[in-house]
Amino acid sequence: QVQLVESGGGLVQAGGSLRLSCAASANIFSFLAMGWYRQAPGKQRELVASFSSGGITNYADSVKGRFTISRDNAKNTVYLQMNSLKPEDTAVYYCNADSSITYWGKGTLVTVSP
User: Which phi-psi region, left, alpha or beta, contains residue 28 (left: φ > 0; alpha: ψ -120 to 50)?
Assistant: First the structure.
């Protein structure tokens, strides 16, 4: 059973930055894709950023130019650097990994105050 553990969430003022981490219990090369999703109160979970095993990255329009997804293969960890945060970025952020099974972390809360 693969485990994904997120960390790095917290409370930040608008305009600030946070870096989320997702530590995987398996070699991240084994996944077809990995990414970050978020779910705000009363809203559906949405894709924030992802990368495929081929290295292609994808970002939601709302975060382009502000968020960057990256990975450290040696640490089996995926990061989400979030800059210029806005109150509308407030959500629980989930790490996701796709292989023949889809795995989810338990999420980390990001709160951006005005």
Answer: alpha
- For residue range 8-55, list pLDDT tens digits in order: 999 999 999 999 999 999 998 889 999 999 999 999 999 999 998 888
Rounded to 5 degrees, φ, ψ at 102 are: -100, 130
Residue 108 has φ and ψ, to the nearest 5°, of -135, 135
Alpha-carbon distance 73 to 37, whole Å? Answer: 20
Distance separating alpha carbons of residues 114 and 60, to the nearest angstrom: 22
8 A C-beta contact, residue 18 and residue 9: yes
Count other Cβ atoms within 10 Å, centred on residue 84.
13
